[in-house]
Write a structure and sequence with these properties.
The protein has 2 helices and 8 strands. The protein is of the alpha+beta class. It has a 6-stranded antiparallel sheet.
């Protein structure tokens, strides 16, 4: 990864609470050069008949993890928008704690690309997503500071 995060775990947790108030069950557990790890408890994930977490719920979780990673790596970026994405669902997953491991692939002046690996409790990959965000309304300086 070329870029390093500019926010700590605690700062990223505060942004998550500010950006998505009422989103109980999400927690930032790691922000490092290796990426960001976000967890979701089972109670916040919709389950389909048959007892598996729905695909849209897995996609939404990967999207939120990527959105939070944008700010962890760029500083406060509430205007970040997902411009394109692809996701592969690898296995059906039963309700339980999920982890999204997000890594920066490329961070540019106006866009950023991240990958998110969604894992179940035992650590099996259940989905892989590529997330392309743009952040309109400002440019990024080399230090990661945004200018308006």
């Amino acid at each position: 990864m070329g870029d390093r995060p500019v926010l700590s775990v605690e700062e990223t947790r505060l942004l998550l609470a500010e950006y998505l108030p009422g989103e109980d069950g999400l927690d930032v557990v790691e922000v490092s050069d290796g990426g960001l790890v976000l967890t979701a408890c089972a109670s916040r994930l919709p389950v389909r008949p048959g007892g598996t977490v729905s695909g849209p719920a897995l996609f939404a979780f990967a999207d939120v993890a990527g959105y939070v990673a944008v700010s962890a790596y760029l500083g406060r970026t509430p205007s970040a928008v997902l411009t394109s994405s692809s996701i592969s669902f690898l296995e059906a997953v039963e309700p339980g704690v999920l982890r999204a491991r997000v890594e920066a692939v490329r961070i540019g002046r106006r866009t950023a690309v991240f990958t998110a690996r969604v894992e179940d409790g035992p650590g099996r990959a259940v989905a892989l997503a590529t997330l392309h965000f743009s952040f309109p309304g400002g440019r990024r300086r080399a230090s990661g500071e945004r200018v308006g």
